[in-house]
Automatic annotation (TrEMBL):
PANTHER family: QUERCETIN 2,3-DIOXYGENASE. This is Pirin N-terminal domain-containing protein. Residues 1-21 are annotated as: Disordered. Gene3D superfamilies: Jelly Rolls (2.60.120.10). Belongs to the pirin family.
Length: 273
């Protein structure tokens, strides 16, 4: 890694993720989760879980409990049906972002609604110190494809950030009790985007994930091809669907993401302390 405004990029190939096919559930685990254990991939900054799930029609996760973590779901296709012990019942379509600050504890269920499989990412974040035992809270946000077209749209941001609404349903990012920001983008062919991370630390962390939209594939990633690297210097790294990468930004560094394939890439990008 060179000095100056550079970025250290550590690829996380899709076929090296944990994965499981339970029939009703086809899932990938970027970080250690359930039966997947790997000391090299336990967490990254506040990011603790990044699961890419496909749940068969009219099936799903029965009622189960969580506490302490900030848990949110990003719906890619189909409809996700959510019910919880706080009395929330919702059907979440593509583009929905559902956030639960589990705090002292909640129970919930998540199922595929209707006759179509639901494809979504479930993400857990560790709360800021002292925030893990707060009162549980629930939020939903909805983002259109147009809002994410060829830009990094901010979907999740720390609850103490300027302009972040604490209303259950509102515009703008969902509030999180964690030092994490999540962006989503639909990057069209031939388009390059540049991202400057937000945060308080001098050397910032990040993570990028290319959603696997071409179907559940446990082999080497296929589909869309992205090239990522520092805006100023350094090598370019190729990512395909399902691939991700750990990022460490030097002060002033900016990430450049280019879609050099023929299809539209759906990407999640995280800023982390």
């Amino acid at each position: 890694m060179s000095s100056g405004n550079s970025i250290q990029i550590i690829p996380r190939p899709s076929n090296e993720r944990g994965h499981a096919d339970h029939g009703w559930l086809k899932t990938f685990h970027t970080f250690a989760f359930a039966g997947y254990r790997d000391a090299r991939h336990e967490s990254w900054g506040a990011l603790r879980v990044l699961n890419e799930d496909r749940v068969a029609a009219r099936t799903g996760f029965g009622t189960h409990s969580h506490q302490q973590y900030e848990i949110f779901s990003y719906v890619i296709s189909g409809k996700l049906e959510h019910q919880d012990s706080m009395g929330n019942t919702e059907i979440l379509p593509r583009g929905a972002l559902q956030m639960t600050s589990t705090g002292t504890g909640i129970s919930h269920s998540e199922k595929a609604n209707g006759a179509q499989e639901v494809h979504f990412c479930q993400i857990w974040a560790s709360p800021r110190p002292g925030q893990g035992q707060g009162k549980p809270a629930y939020f939903t946000r909805h983002f259109t494809d147009e809002e994410k077209k060829n830009r990094f749209a901010l979907l999740v941001a720390p609850d103490n950030s300027t302009g972040v609404s604490q209303k259950r349903e509102d515009s703008g990012p969902a509030p999180i009790r964690s030092e994490l920001r999540m962006y989503a983008s639909l990057i069209h062919p031939g388009i390059s985007l540049v991202h400057a991370p937000v945060g308080n630390s001098q050397k910032k962390k990040g993570y990028i994930h290319v959603i696997q939209k071409s179907g559940y594939n446990v082999a080497q990633g296929g589909g869309i091809t992205l090239r990522i690297g520092s805006q100023s210097d350094g090598p370019q790294i190729e990512l395909r669907e399902g691939d991700g990468a750990y990022l460490v930004y030097e002060p002033g560094a900016e990430l450049r993401v280019e879609n050099d394939s023929r299809g539209v890439a759906e990407v999640l990008l995280f800023d982390l302390e």
